[in-house]
TrEMBL record:
Species in which this protein is naturally found: Sedimentitalea arenosa
Transmembrane segments: 164-183
Comp. bias regions, Basic and acidic residues: 76-106
Name of protein: Zinc-ribbon domain-containing protein
Biased composition regions of type Low complexity, renumbered to the chain: 46-59, 136-151
Lineage of origin: Bacteria, Pseudomonadati, Pseudomonadota, Alphaproteobacteria, Rhodobacterales
Length: 228
C-alpha cells in the first residue's frame, strides 16, 4: 500500500495489514502532518465521512450571522500512531531523502580514489651491491627474504633425463626377452608347435650373429714368415 502525504507529497510503501479495516490516522515523518487513511478494501468509512464534511462546510457558508458567543469546536484528540507504522514511515522518509540527495549531487557518494595512500613497500629503493667477482648482486628491501634465481634449463633437463632412462630401460627389457626366447626356444616350440618355424629361424639368425661376432672380436692368428 502506498501512502502519500497531502502536504509535502512524500510517499511511503507500507504493508496492507498496517492499516485496519476501519482506517487509522497516519503521520508524515518528513513534515509531521497527520491525516486519516482508510483501508483500500473498506472505503465505506471514508465515503461516509465525506458527505458529512461537505454538509458541515455548506452549513458554515450559508450561516450569515454566526453567534459570537458559541464555544469553539473542540479538536478531537489525536490518535497515537503505532510505533511500528511510525518506524516504517521514518525509514521510508530517510530512504527517499537519501535518494533525492543522491540525485542532486551524484558525486557526493563516490569514493575518493585518488586519496588511497601509496604502498610504502613500493617506494623502497632496491640497492645493488658489488660482489668479490666484480659483478653486482641485487638486495631486497629490509624485512623481505632474498629470492634466488634458478637456472631456466633445470626444468628442461629433468624431462630429457627421465625420457632417456625410460628408453634405456625399455631396451634392456627387450634384450632380456630376446635372450629368454633364444635360451628356451626348444621348450616354447614343444609347448606351441605353431611357433616352431619362427623360433627355428630366430635361433639360426642368432647363431649366425654369434659366429660373426666371435670372428670379429677374436684376434687373427699370425701367419708364418716365409722361409728363404
Amino acid at each position: 500500500m502506498r501512502l502519500t502525504c497531502p502536504k509535502c507529497g512524500a510517499q511511503y510503501e507500507v504493508p496492507d495489514e498496517v492499516i485496519p479495516t476501519e482506517g487509522r490516522d497516519v503521520q508524515c515523518s518528513a513534515c509531521g502532518t497527520t491525516w486519516f487513511h482508510a483501508h483500500p478494501d473498506h472505503p465505506s468509512v471514508a465515503q461516509a465521512d465525506a458527505p458529512a464534511a461537505e454538509i458541515a462546510a455548506a452549513a458554515e457558508d450559508t450561516d450569515d450571522e454566526p453567534e459570537a458567543d458559541n464555544d469553539p469546536l473542540e479538536t478531537p484528540p489525536r490518535r497515537e500512531l503505532d510505533p511500528e507504522v511510525a518506524e516504517i514511515l521514518r525509514s521510508e522518509a530517510d530512504r527517499e531523502s537519501r535518494l533525492r540527495a543522491a540525485e542532486r549531487d551524484p558525486t557526493a557518494t563516490a569514493p575518493a580514489l585518488d586519496q588511497t595512500p601509496a604502498d610504502d613497500g613500493a617506494t623502497k629503493p632496491v640497492v645493488s651491491a658489488p660482489t668479490r667477482d666484480g659483478g653486482e648482486t641485487t638486495t631486497t628491501p629490509h624485512g623481505e627474504a632474498p629470492t634466488t634465481a634458478e637456472p631456466s634449463d633445470a626444468s628442461e633437463k629433468a624431462p630429457r633425463k627421465s625420457g632417456f632412462l625410460r628408453g634405456f630401460s625399455l631396451i634392456i627389457l627387450l634384450a632380456m626377452a630376446l635372450v629368454l626366447i633364444y635360451s628356451n626356444a626348444a621348450e616354447i616350440s614343444a609347448a606351441m608347435p605353431a611357433l616352431a618355424p619362427t623360433l627355428d629361424s630366430y635361433v639360426d639368425l642368432v647363431n649366425q650373429g654369434r659366429v660373426w661376432l666371435d670372428a670379429t672380436i677374436s684376434p687373427q692368428s699370425p701367419q708364418p714368415a716365409p722361409t728363404e
